[in-house]
């Protein structure tokens, strides 16, 4: 913090002139490094310019020495000090703090204290001036009464308080980013995931400033209701401001985030597995948590058509089993040609946190993609609603979400040489896997589908839900099994208990070599996503 951060040089000059007018003293201001902030001063008397002189040794001997000593003292004491310089002249010094940051000192000197007089011997020693002349010049210098000193102290104090308060207000205004900043920094750059975290928070607080459009885009409902708290900006997964705090909160470590355990699992329940995306582990764990009454709600998604899942709040184990699977299960709903609107593999389950709180649920498991997990963890880090109802965060691995209309859907058919009518199930791992109703398995490279990848996903660098309690993906696991990473103490506890009740492990005692391979596969995909996001981010106008 520098004095010139608070106000400009010209304003410090004006500050000095005002104080000189008010007190008759020579005004000064130094920054924390001891450099002058008021360059040209109006002298309080004829003696001071002679004492100070132009030579460095004189300045060093009296004025600068006095100011340095005062600066050290006021900084240490954190309060106003009234003293005298070696020549016997009054010196009032006041520290300038912005919070705990010491910016410098301001003050005045050059008049005499009550009953004080100039020390002619010192003036003679410094300047060589005749003692009589020094005494005569000293007699022309005004003495301040204790009341007058008090008045000048209050004046300085008020002015400094005002400068700091204005600075803080201006800082708050420029630094607090609001939803308008989200529009500028996130939406206009195509980086909005449409997770709905901003609206979820604003609505949970009853501010009512934001809402979601019909297409899921967050927007102002009433800008006048925005109190400019800046929380929507901080919790947005496309904003990095809280990332270091977030990492500290979960004990994040490179390269995959915190990884206490990694293993391959599937649900013991075979019927459940047939509905699931991979091994049905997410659903099995949620059922277990419901059975044990550890959760009273789960923010998940539910099939609403081919390539379409909608956020859903499950409140018991049966409902959670209904929600198993991903967006790519064609057995659940009708033919894809029935749906004319855009298809999306993305579904903002975390938006169910608001309704969960309204229902009075207090232990909710949130299942979501890394971007959604990031937003909820940020809410928790700030301690803002509705994150107080979160019991645990179950994150999915994610290479990207896909959105497409009919034309692009037909293009995918051509690339894969299949017809959507024949498709039974689709899954995303290291490739886009298509299982046909006749049992045939096809696979497309993910880069072939880049033309339908959501724009926001191109900037996303989290493949494994690094801030979740537990993360789940198909990568590295045989078909019908799920790779699971337990990250936090809560995640480890949940996994350990689920192993006893609802999960079976692929390889009870995997050898070190197999574990390294599994980890390497995950790390490779994670690094590839980070690299790709970094390349996209540098292309953005004005950086991130
Ligand atoms: C958009 C997307 C991309 C993915 N990309 C990859 C990838 O590249 N590599 C990889 O290894 N794994 C990826 N996964 C994860 C993988 O598809 C499985 O979800 C994961 O392996 C868990 O399988 P499971 O059988 O154990 O879960 P299940 O028991 O089937 O449970 C899945 C849970 O996820 C919820 N869910 C389903 N779809 C969504 C959605 N769109 N948004 C939020 N929640 C949802 C369901 O409601 C259910 O609770 C992706 C998942 C999604 C949703
Ligand atoms: S990414 Fe989420 S929090 Fe950020 S602006 Fe979009 S909807 Fe809001
Ligand atoms: S890649 Fe996945 S986690 Fe990242 S923004 Fe897209 S949907 Fe969210």
TrEMBL record:
Molecular function GO terms recorded: iron-sulfur cluster binding; metal ion binding; oxidoreductase activity, acting on CH or CH2 groups, with an iron-sulfur protein as acceptor
Alphabetical list of PANTHER family matching this protein: 7-HYDROXYMETHYL CHLOROPHYLL A REDUCTASE, CHLOROPLASTIC
Domain 4Fe-4S ferredoxin-type: 216-248
Superkingdom of source: Bacteria
Name the UniProt record assigns to this protein: Coenzyme F420-reducing hydrogenase, beta subunit homolog
One Pfam family hit: Fer4_10
UniProt keyword annotations, A-Z: Iron, Iron-sulfur, Metal-binding
InterPro entries named in the record: 4Fe4S_Fe-S-bd (IPR017896), 4Fe4S_Fe_S_CS (IPR017900), Co_F420_Hydgase/DH_bsu_N (IPR007516), FRHB/FDHB/HCAR-like (IPR045220), FrhB_FdhB_C (IPR007525), PocR_dom (IPR018771)
